[in-house]
Design brief:
With 353 residues, the chain is an alpha/beta fold. It contains 15 helices and ten strands.
């Protein structure tokens, strides 16, 4: 008799030959053994795909699919319909998980008939090959008894960054399939996917336990990147949040404050992006971009509601409140300098904002 598959673990792989072995072994070492591990080689140019094949030869629970490069969303979507587990778990191939993660989350899902289980996690920010700082994120244990209760308290989970990523969650497969939920082919695909999941979800369980280790590299080349589409993307994200809360018909003060504060913090990130050393705009173009950002009516609205939690963020928002282009320009330059030259300080400030 074939063994029941409790969880389908889905993992896209691309350019991670240094890390993928640890990721695979952290799933193999789970205390819950009744899983299938669906790995998708997304046309990786390095040895990652070959490494995955070698693990699959020794472990029948692992299946490796090879496809042309199309990005993580297409890789995950390729196997969602092939998954046979009652639940799905989405892993990233350069991270790793604690051994009791699947068992604990499965037990909670079964015990409470949950469509979604949300856990805490660790962010490990690396400054070099050996030196890193760990940030822990979690919310207290909670079983939401009704859809309304979840919606009115989701702001707490947003505030702890627990609703943005797929890898700190266990999803009921039938819920994803019945609602046609797939990862969209867009930048930051994790966030819109999760928004689609929570839009109509009814049965949610939160555990304060932390299992997943998200590895964040802080190489200067990474932090100095410039994105010419960052501002419109942040505007789009804010529209998603406003749409979600409008659909939920939730307008309580804590929820609206969170939405506004989240938006205004990302506006500061957009100012830094414009003043980034790798920005392709000239000085006049940068000032024009800053003017467009800070004069957006959404900014004025958000500033009325947002309650920044740190003195650092309150200070950062002053030039924005004053709509002073010159001060915003130099503020962005300072943030950009700290971000590239003193990554430890930047990470601490960001974590404490």
């Amino acid at each position: 008799m074939a063994q029941e598959i409790k969880i389908s673990v889905i993992m896209p792989v691309y350019n991670v030959e240094q890390f993928v072995g640890k990721a695979i072994e952290s799933i193999q070492n789970q205390t819950l053994k009744e899983f299938e591990f669906l790995i998708v080689d997304d046309g990786t140019p390095d040895q990652s795909g070959k490494i995955c094949d070698e693990y699959a030869q020794k472990d029948p629970r692992i299946q490796v699919f090879h496809k042309e490069n199309g990005g993580a969303p297409s890789a995950r979507n390729l196997v969602i319909d092939r998954a046979r587990g009652k639940y799905m778990y989405f892993m990233d191939s350069d991270d790793w998980a604690e051994p009791t993660m699947l068992e604990d989350m499965y037990r909670l899902a079964e015990e409470h008939h949950a469509q979604l289980v949300v856990a805490g996690f660790y962010i490990e920010t690396y400054y070099n090959d050996t030196e890193y700082v760990t940030t822990e994120l979690s919310c207290p244990d909670r079983v939401f008894q009704t859809q309304r209760e979840f919606r009115e308290n989701a702001y707490q989970l947003f505030d702890k960054n627990l609703l943005y990523t797929p890898w700190n969650k266990l999803f009921l497969s039938q819920y994803l399939l019945d609602n046609g939920l797939r990862f969209p082919q867009t930048w930051m695909d994790d966030f819109p996917f999760n928004l689609m999941v929570i839009r109509e979800v009814e049965k949610v369980v939160v555990t304060s336990k932390k299992y997943y280790h998200f590895m964040r590299a802080r190489a200067e080349s990474e932090t100095a990147r410039y994105r010419d589409d960052l501002y419109p993307k942040r505007e789009e994200e804010h529209s998603w949040m406003l749409d979600l809360y409008g659909h939920w018909q939730v307008s309580n003060e804590p929820s609206m404050e969170m939405v506004s504060r989240r938006y205004i913090e990302r506006v500061i990130g957009c100012l830094e992006n414009v003043t980034n050393v790798n920005c392709t705009l000239d000085r006049k173009g940068r000032r024009a971009a800053i003017r467009e950002i800070i004069r957006n009516p959404r900014v004025s609205e958000a500033l009325k509601t947002a309650r920044p939690r740190s003195a650092y963020m309150k200070l950062m928002l002053l030039p924005v409140r004053w709509k002073n282009v010159t001060l915003c320009y130099y503020e962005g330059k300072v943030i950009s300098w700290v971000k590239t030259k003193n990554v430890k300080t930047f990470a601490k400030l960001k974590a404490g904002r």
